[in-house]
Amino acid sequence: MKKSIDLNDCQTLDEQDPLRSLRAKFSQSESGAIHYDANSMGAMPKAVPEQVAWMLNEGWRNLSRQGWSKLDWLDKPKKLAAGIAHLLGANPEDVIVCDSTSINLYKLLSYAWRIRKGGNILLTESNHFPTDIYIAEGWVKTVQELGSEAEIRFADSHEEVMDSLNEEVAVVSLTYVDYRTSLRWEMSRLMQKAKEVGALVVWDLSHAAGAVRIDLMECDADFAVGCSYKYLCGGPGAPAYLFIHPRHQNQTWPTIAGWMGHLDVFAFAQNYEAHPSIISQTTGSPAIMANEIFSAAVEIWQEVQVDELDRKHESLTQLFWELLEQECGPLGAEMTSPRNHSQQGGHVSIRHPGAGPVSEALLEHGVVSSFRKPDSIRFGISPLYHSHEDIWAGIQRLKEVLSTEVWQEERFQKVSV
Ligand SMILES: *Cc1c(COP(=O)(O)O)cnc(C)c1O
Q1: Pocket test residue of 41, 98, 102, 177 for ligand 1, highest count of atoms within 8 A of CB
Q2: Regarding beta strands 95-97 and 120-124, do their DSSP bridges make them parallel or antiparallel, or are they unpaired?
Q3: What is the CATH number of the domain that holds 234?
């Protein structure tokens, strides 16, 4: 029989972890709760409050408008992008940090559609994040009103998307990792098929970047967007990022041709001339305070090798599954996310008939997870600030909640978002 895993084994894994020192760079919540919520809001780097205070006092109060010339406000979108590009498998000059994921999706979906000179947009229906669907629908409505015959086509499973890819599809919009089940696409296989029919693909990397390995260039990806406040720990309201393969850059005007994307911003020229780089996709003034917050995490990311990140994520999630089976096996919690690491994104999800009340009870027992209707609980696993011992502690608390059935109590029946 296989020896059961104990706390000592988890501590040994931590001692062998090349990323173990990074945990100390993050603030733990005052309640002492384990923050399994990297899929919604990554933890705060300890350096943030001091950096923000500096920016307020020196940047805003003292330098004020001169901050534009004396500090790196204008360059920050490029600098931040350069600090995370390796996590995406991209070159620094092909990534930029700006705006929200939704806006970046709009920019790239429409840009791809215009490069293709129109056609249909293919989406997945059941596992796409809502904003990704709305943005595509909004674009298609706009061009329909202007007389184009574009349509949205939906496919459900990965295989259905592969089967639906034909010459009528101009653009495919895909969430690289399903935000509910954590199922991850085979990016290179999809890209190959898309190339065969001439479709361009926009990937949403929100539930993968900062958790697992992404190989945009190796997979020959066309476009990608993603959000920075999840695994990337960019903080509430962090600016998102976008990637454009060099073969698609500077093909036509950006859809939102703002002054920040101009060749010479402070020339205040009357005529628009796009910056001949990814900078052309920036729109208005950068979010200077939010960029400053994000820069604390980016400083940490710069030290992280993506192979080490990926290996640690695999080690943490495998431990999660083994401990779930060992400790909670008979208690009705069943794993639903893929067990094979290459098919899995940042979070693990389990199914339990009382998922909502269980996640509420977990909060009181010091575990922050997230509930998704009807019966899923998600645990966002961060290779940056979770230890193997954290996994041990989280599973022990889950076991306590399930075995005592404390979650059945009245006060846990009202479920928060
Ligand atoms: C979180 C998330 C977003 C968020 O979009 P914002 O515009 O930044 O709020 C978009 N897409 C996916 C897949 C997400 O998980």
Answers
A1: 102
A2: unpaired
A3: 3.40.640.10
Q: Residue 195 sits in which domain range?
A: 72-301
Q: Are residues 198 and 311 in the same domain?
A: no
pLDDT tens by residue, 134-184: 999 999 999 999 999 999 999 988 899 999 999 999 999 999 999 888 999
Question: How do beta strands 376-380 and 347-351 pair?
Answer: antiparallel
Residue whose Cα lies nearest atom 4 of ligand 1: it is 101
Active-site residues, by number, are: 129, 204, 229-230, 378
Structural domain contains residue 50: no
Distance of alpha carbon 140 from alpha carbon 148, whole angstroms:
9
DSSP string, 85-150: HHHHT--GGGEEE-S-HHHHHHHHHHHHHHHTTS-EEEEESSSS-HHHHHHHHHHHHHHHHTT---
> What is the model's pTM?
0.96
Task: Tell me the mean pLDDT in the region 32-47.
Answer: 92
Pair 105, 171 in one domain: yes
User: Both 142 and 185 in a single domain?
Assistant: yes
Q: Are residues 257 and 363 in the same domain?
A: no
In ligand 1, the atom with minimum distance to the C-alpha of 40 is 1
Same domain, 288 and 362: no
Alpha carbon nearest to ligand 1 atom 6, residue? 101
Specify whether 371 is located in the same domain as 386: yes
Report how many domains make up the chain. Answer: 2
Asked whether residue 417 is assigned to any structural domain, the reply reads no
Spatial separation of the C-alpha atoms in residues 71 and 75, rounded to whole Å: 9
- Distance (Å, whole) CA 345 – CA 349: 10
Tell me how far apart the alpha carbons of residues 176 and 202 are, in angstroms, rounded to a whole number: 9
- Specify whether 84 is located in the same domain as 108: yes
Q: In this structure, are residues 17 and 387 in contact, taking their beta carbons and an 8 Å threshold?
A: yes
Strands annotated E in 302-362: 334-335, 347-351
The neighbour count for residue 342, using CB atoms within 10 Å, is 11
Q: How far is the CA of 88 from the centre of ligand 1 (A)?
A: 17
Question: For residue 1, is it within any domain?
Answer: no
